[in-house]
Amino acid sequence: MARVVVDVMLKPEILDPQGQAVQRALPRLGFDGVVDVRQGKRFEVELDGPADEAALARVREMAEKLLANTVIEEFDVRVEA
Q1: Can you say whether residue 13 is alpha, beta or left, with left for phi > 0 and alpha for psi between -120 and 50 degrees?
Q2: In Å, how far are 7, 11, 15, 33, 55 from 23, measured between CA atoms?
Q3: Least enclosed by CB within 10 Å: which of 5, 18, 25, 28?
Q4: pLDDT in tens, 17-65
Q5: What is the dihedral of CA 54, 59, 64, 70, to 10 degrees?
Q6: Do 68 and 23 touch, CB atoms closer than 8 A?
Q7: Full-model pTM
Q8: Please, what's the b/e burial string for 34-73 (b: 16 or more CB within 10 A of its CB; e: otherwise)?
Q9: Which among 4, 33, 42, 40 is positioned nearest to 19, based on CA atoms?
Q10: Closest CA to 3 of 47, 49, 58, 56
């Protein structure tokens, strides 16, 4: 069994209101020096079998069709150790 992680983030050119709200709140909480915050999603996919190239291709297909809105989001697929 293998665990594959899909990280989904808004594309850099897309405004991120939630990230901006967190960025504005950090100095009030004593966290200075933060230049930017971007909010995203993380999906952990447990596979029945190894995370070979065919399995990773299927997870990428899942991300393209369901997990990410590829018009405004980009994603990264990786195997978690």
Answers
A1: alpha
A2: 20, 18, 13, 10, 37
A3: 28
A4: 999 999 999 999 999 999 999 999 999 999 999 999 999 999 999 999 9
A5: -120
A6: no
A7: 0.89
A8: eeeeeebeebebebeeebeeebbeebbebbeeebbeeeeb
A9: 40
A10: 47
DSSP-based helix, strand, coil % in the chain, nearest 5: 35, 30, 35
Please name the amino acid found at residue 44: E
Query: What is the total residue count of the chain?
Result: 81
Tokens of 60: 């990428």
Beta bridge partners of 80: 3
Q: Which residue is associated with the tokens 């200075």?
A: 32
